[in-house]
Amino acid sequence: MSLLSAHRLRKSYGEVAVFSEVSLSLAAGEIVALLGESGSGKSTLLNCLAGLDTPDAGQIVLDGHALEGLDDDARAALRRRALGFVFQAFHLLPHLSVADNVALPLRLLGQRDDARVQHMLQAVRLDGLAQRMPRQLSGGQLQRVAIARALVHRPRLVLADEPTGNLDPRHAGEVLDLLRTCTRKAGAACLLVTHSEAAAQAADRRLRLDADGLHDA
Ligand SMILES: Nc1ncnc2c1ncn2[C@@H]1O[C@H](COP(=O)(O)OP(=O)(O)OP(=O)(O)O)[C@@H](O)[C@H]1O
């Protein structure tokens, strides 16, 4: 079953066309790498797929729901339930501890599961830093917090924007393993923007974005 499908998406900023004719389908259990030159629109596409930005044309169906038929509240509810997003700039909340940042997706769903938060922190090797504040972490540690936060509520779809960009090869390998394990175990799907050859090779398939759409890479 397709967890995410997009059909003929087009996006411009003013007069500047970013992409057109973008179609894709992600099946349960698969990890797909999204490649493309800097500026080709990978982050823009991820934002559109998450319902955080709106394409100028085309349809997106996320976990069985057509995004264009949903108002802002319904989109936000779907995002909270079904989606884990690893932002390129992490977007951790600066006034919350590491543990509270990771717990946030659960809290937004009205849930509390300290054991699950602890498990995710262990999985990204940050269990010793649970009470630190984000400003007290390195770039690679912030990135691992963002990954734990994206996976803690067992989302059906994980959209990850360069999730290994700040990590050394060992930590990058661990994060990719974690994304793979969580994706497979939850029957979820993961779309992973990356410039890393190792990360691309760890995916089940690779797609390249350019101005006229997505192509197998
Ligand atoms: N809010 C915006 N307003 C105008 N142009 C934008 C906006 N956001 C992105 N762009 C432009 O859209 C294009 C695609 O940007 P995007 O960040 O999606 O690329 P990317 O493929 O993710 O790049 P990178 O690999 O460098 O992160 C770029 O030319 C960028 O300058």
UniProtKB/TrEMBL annotation:
It comes from Pelomonas baiyunensis. The keyword Membrane applies. SUPFAM superfamilies: P-loop containing nucleoside triphosphate hydrolases. GO terms for molecular function: ATP binding. It holds the Pfam family ABC_tran. Residues 4-217 form the ABC transporter domain. This is ABC transporter ATP-binding protein. Gene3D superfamilies: P-loop containing nucleotide triphosphate hydrolases. It comes from the Bacteria. Keywords: ATP-binding, Cell membrane, Membrane, Nucleotide-binding, Transport.
